[in-house]
Amino acid sequence: MAADPKMRFLVVDDFSTMRRIVRNLLKELGFTNVDEAEDGAIALQKLQNGGFEFVVTDWNMPNMDGLTLLQSIRATPSLKHLPVLMITAEAKKENIIAAAQAGASGYIVKPFTAGTLSEKLNKIFEKMGQA
Amino acid sequence: MSDFAGMEELLQDFLQEASDLLSDVDNKLVDLEKMPDDHGLLNEIFRGFHTVKGGAGFLNATELVTLCHLTENLFDKLRNGELELTANLMDVIMAATKGVREMFGELGQGVQPQPADPHVINALRAALEGESPEIPAAPVAPQAVETAPASDEPDWNALHSAVTGKEAEPVTQGELITKLEAEVPPALGEISVSPQPAAVAPTGRRASDQPSSQAAAGRRADERGRENTIRVDTSRLDQVLNLSGEIGLTKNRLTSLRVDILAGKNDSETLQALDQAVSQLDLLVSDLQNSVMKTRMQPIGRLFQKYPRIARDLARQLGKDVELVLAGEETEVDKTMIEDLADPLIHLIRNAVDHGVEMPAERQASGKPVKSLVRLEARQEGDHIVLIIADDGKGMSAERIRAKAVEKGLVSEEEANMLDERQSLNLIFLPGFSTMAQVSAVSGRGVGMDVVKTNIHKLNGSIEIRSEPGKGSVFIISLPLTLAILPVLLVLLGDQPFALPLSMVREILPIDQSRIQEVGGKETLVVRGEVLPVISLASMLGWPLERYPEYGVFMQTTERSFILGVDSFAGRDDAVIKSLEDFRPKGVAGVTTLSNGQIVLILDMKELLADLGQHADMRAGLRALELV
Known about the structure:
The complex is a heterodimer of chains A (131) and B (628).
Chain A: E1 9-12, H1 16-28, E2 34-37, H2 40-48, E3 54-58, H3 66-75, E4 84-88, H4 93-102, E5 106-109, H5 114-130
Parallel strand pairs in A: 1-2, 1-3, 3-4, 4-5
Chain B: H1 8-34, H2 39-58, H3 62-79, H4 87-108, H5 118-128, H6 156-164, H7 173-183, H8 213-220, H9 234-262, H10 268-295, E1 297-299, H11 301-304, H12 307-318, E2 322-327, E3 332-334, H13 335-356, H14 360-365, E4 372-381, E5 384-391, H15 398-407, H16 413-418, H17 421-426, H18 448-458, E6 462-468, E7 472-480, E8 485-493, E9 496-501, E10 505-510, E11 517-519, E12 522-527, E13 530-536, H19 537-541, E14 551-556, E15 561-566, E16 568-576, E17 588-593, E18 599-603, H20 605-615, H21 618-626
Parallel strand pairs in B: 2-4, 9-18, 13-15
Antiparallel strand pairs in B: 1-3, 4-5, 5-7, 6-7, 8-9, 8-16, 10-14, 11-12, 12-13, 14-15, 17-18
């Protein structure tokens, strides 16, 4: 399934440099409709206002971390089908299992390039296409 | 050559954000020493290193990733209760934080950081293993660091399938690694395949790690050079944009009016429109000046946050127990001023910790709490910023300072005996003064306080000391809000206008020659019960006194008050100071242009006064000025 370049992304990270990195990588892949949130709590609020089609979130954040955000998304009927790509600096098994159990659509380890991101996104788009 | 071609912007963003984050971590570490079990603090510090690590990965700064990763793991164990925070461990953490900051310095020079001090890395690893870590004091040759056993990155898809129970495919370890390696873009190198960046810590030095001379210099280089960017609230920028837009519109209006007027149209309606447009432009330009000035304003907290750590390290080194308390961090100060304040403030804080505060035993003996407080505070008072550095130490003895100054030959005994308490304290600002009998490694070089004073002076500021023996000392720095625009009073000497900083002017009064009284051979005037010396501007500038000054300007600095005699006034103005570049006559702070195009000198009162004290009969001058 070819991804819609107008797809609206929400990038969630407390480190603004990292949000910019992700935003730039998404731009490289042709996705320019990107909004940002500083933590899970702000993200959830933005998501509840609607309009987002894809969430890329960091794991470790103050107020509400990425895993809790993911769980909250999955527990909200209007949001539960949103694809969520988790970004983290860890590739620990426990983390990945926790993310998978919470219903993450994908998992990407920092640092990554546009190529890696594109690959992960495409896998998620494929799955969404099949569903 | 930069190691970060094409990534400069990312690097700048990273450095700015990560440096703030690290300063924050530094402060939290100081707090953590007081509350070693605070889970919130441990979490926040953990996240700090974690975040820096994540960003560093994108810059391929592997050494920084390694250092942050190890430190982060340590905090993970601390917050999980697997490790306990000991004083030794704290030293290791502090050393690691210092290492991170040094690496920021190298990144700021555009080079990849060199590997961290192997002792720090080893100590971190030892601590992670639960051993008591130690950092040897003497540096020895770098040695090979043991490579941590590499584990495999779990495959997301396999795990996801396993957990979700869909299309579970058995993958052998060999396949997994091949697959992973294939997935990793070559540019990122080995670090990205490793689940533990620590695993690629240097085992000896790779060719690419050869330190360039630039990198080595970067370690020691002054980090101040790189602060070329500034973060501005977008709403402030929007305001600047909005105002420039309005100025554009007003300019268009004026252009069309000019066409009309040049065509001979000068009816009252046209002139009224011209008047309106010019007034509007006037208003808009001053608004714009204010807005632009505001974009340069930064909260002084960005400077303050570096100090608790410095104070803590120094106190520990000296065996003292000191807490640096910050207040007024949100006070906004011009960016240039923040940079120029960094050194003087460090010096004053070091001074407070080193000289001001007593040793714990001494404090106990005099019935004081063992922990001493040093307060660093900023606040805005009218059009001034006031900075206060106060300690609750032993205070300064005017007598001892006088004796010291005489011993050092800075003043004669006769001069010293004439000085009052405040003037005696001010002796510490003389070049070559140091109160410590023995020069300490920290602040007793005797070159500090006069440099502090000179630096504050350069910012059009002043510094004042108050001290109470046994109770402590307070240094009060007063600074103008901005250096860009200076409100001035224009005074006339004959036909020649001069500009005086309005901040020093208290009031203007006519001089009635019959009320002048001579005290100690100097002219004085009593203003509401206060005896003030009268100094004519002409004599200050070395001009012949052609007629007796008609007006007096009541000038007030933190050091002295006096009446400046002038012939007349030309009004007040907001001067945009232009410096005289290489040529700076004594007593002239700069020049500005009046509305009629005339160039006016802005006088540096303090310098003129100092000059007066020096080349005239110094003692008599002092007496006259200080009699009050």
